[in-house]
Amino acid sequence: MAISEFELIERYFRQGCQRGNQRKDVLFGIGDDAAILRAPDNNQLVVTTDTLVEGIHFLKQIEPAVLAYKSVAVNLSDLAAMGADPAWLTLALTLPESNEPWLAEFAAGLNQICEYYGIALVGGDTTRGPLTITLTAMGHVPAGQGIYRHGASPGDWIFVTGHLGDSAAGLKILHGDLAASDDHREFLVTRHLRPTPRILAGRSLRGIASACMDISDGLAGDLRHIVKASQVSAHVEITDVPLSSALVETLGLEQAQRVAIAGGEDYELLFTVPEARKGALMTALGEAGVSHTCIGQIRAGEGIHYYRNGEVESDAPTGFQHF
Amino acid sequence: MAISEFELIERYFRQGCQRGNQRKDVLFGIGDDAAILRAPDNNQLVVTTDTLVEGIHFLKQIEPAVLAYKSVAVNLSDLAAMGADPAWLTLALTLPESNEPWLAEFAAGLNQICEYYGIALVGGDTTRGPLTITLTAMGHVPAGQGIYRHGASPGDWIFVTGHLGDSAAGLKILHGDLAASDDHREFLVTRHLRPTPRILAGRSLRGIASACMDISDGLAGDLRHIVKASQVSAHVEITDVPLSSALVETLGLEQAQRVAIAGGEDYELLFTVPEARKGALMTALGEAGVSHTCIGQIRAGEGIHYYRNGEVESDAPTGFQHF
């Protein structure tokens, strides 16, 4: 029996999310024409939207709970990159048919990550059509403390959190284009399917990082955004780019470095820090328990310049674009 | 030549929207990981999301500027139904291919309605896939003045703005299922393609209406939401439902009444007002220049009860559901 849009929303999202996420700043969530929310005083609202389309951003066979997790994580990663605390989420879900078991699993995955990060699903729309998920995530930063891409200055050091390239390798494995040992396979695929939005790192960078963004299109492509927005050049030592042992053992060092630079969907933070705030950075990220690595320096000029052991590297990969 | 996602966004949305909508509360709009916005003090945030899918919510041959208009209008209508002032918008646009002329027209339509209502496009995502548009609209109400669906009480009068049924008739005309004179055709089709979000009416109803929603699924279906949320019954006099002369002349009175009750996509406001605030209503909506009509009364009990010239009507239509 086909179930109606209202029943769908009621059954799988409204109840679960209201039960799981009792945020006091949600005056009214799902169930009216719009949600009504209370933003904290002296804060600014931070808003981002991302769409995931079947066949483009995820494979047809992805488990619904994993898809829900990743859809939310990708949006939270954008909030993290601004230094924001996540608070609320709206979901626009387009489905080819009323598939109750699929929906139940998707809702469970969504509720789980919302609970984990303490965010509330406050609105949504369910429509029929090709499988597409659009999330709008909202959060806040103390007034004036949002971290943009355009703040990098010559002399600032370039950092990334975590390791790069794992997600791109995980995707290749899922596509059947790369073989790996069972352990490495599990690790790399999980890094692709369940990236960790760096919320804690992002908020720790307030007042410390001069520029920040998340790495979704690969280090090379995304660093270009910072360089362009800040009107500076970036100088990157390839051998300093942090790699997981799983990636190096699976691909070999040189190929691992290429994937780490050109791959995508890392959802790690890429940020710049002035020399004078390097000490504060170590303290802040140390307290947050987030690994981070200096991979180079911002200078005057333009473009990205790669080095290998201090020597200019002319053969560095240059990233990719979705569309 | 294919153009990239970044160029697309840059060319058609970022520049146009930043030029057209210089809201001072947009600290940073499109072009970073997320937008940063300043909400006014002592207000609450109002958020709604709607998706429009080709073939379900609009016809393939729709003009892109009209599609942009309608996508925004539908979301603003939800904000209006809460009594909110609209402020910001994010757009997730999924397109089957990079079609520059289409995008240019879509962006022009979007910029036009954004300028008209003084709202700013603050973020977006452009992806490849079947044509789908998801908008998230944000606005605000003074704290505590949002108007919900659940506030109707026995004795309250039931009102609607404007006329009902025109949009449903316009859609039938577009589908080739209904003939009309040239004048009526133009009027009814325009009412379908370019509904007027009742922003001014919605904000005028603050402190006056006990419950409010917009009519998107037809009067019968939507009134059921108010009745259910408020745990009351509604008593509607069919002959009082406001009809345009174009609708009556095209369909005849009785069929026009049926379409006005069961049709959809009117995007008029449906609201209830206690007897004691009827005078305030006339003043407020009179000043806003919005026509409105009393169509019945809320009583204890449940369900919707239709009358024709005071006699119980058992044959009233019951609305439709999208999904």
Folded structure, characterized:
- Two copies of one chain form a homodimer.
- The longest helix of chain A has 18 residues, at 64-81.
- In chain A, helix 3 (100-117) links the parallel strand 4 (85-95) and strand 5 (120-128).
- Helices cover 37% and strands 26% of the residues of chain A.
- With 323 residues, chain A is of the alpha+beta class.
- The two termini of chain A are 38 Å apart.
- The first copy, chain A, has ten helices and 13 strands.
- In chain A, the strands form three sheets. Chain A has a seven-stranded mixed sheet. A four-stranded mixed sheet of chain A has the order 3-6-4-5.
- Chain A folds into two domains: 5-142, 60s Ribosomal Protein L30, Chain: A (2-Layer Sandwich), CATH 3.30.1330.10; 157-312, PurM-like C-terminal domain (Phosphoribosyl-aminoimidazole Synthetase, Chain A, domain 2).
- In chain A, helix 1 (5-20) runs parallel beside helix 3 (100-117) and helix 4 (166-174) crosses helix 5 (182-193).
- The interface between A and B is large, with 67 and 69 residues.
- Chains A, B: Mg(2+) 3 binds at residues 33, 78, 214.
- Chains A, B: Mg(2+) 2 binds at residues 50, 78.
- Chains A, B: It catalyses: thiamine phosphate + ATP = thiamine diphosphate + ADP.
- Chains A, B: ATP binds at residues 124-125, 149, 216.
- Chains A, B: Residues 31-141 form the PurM-like N-terminal domain.
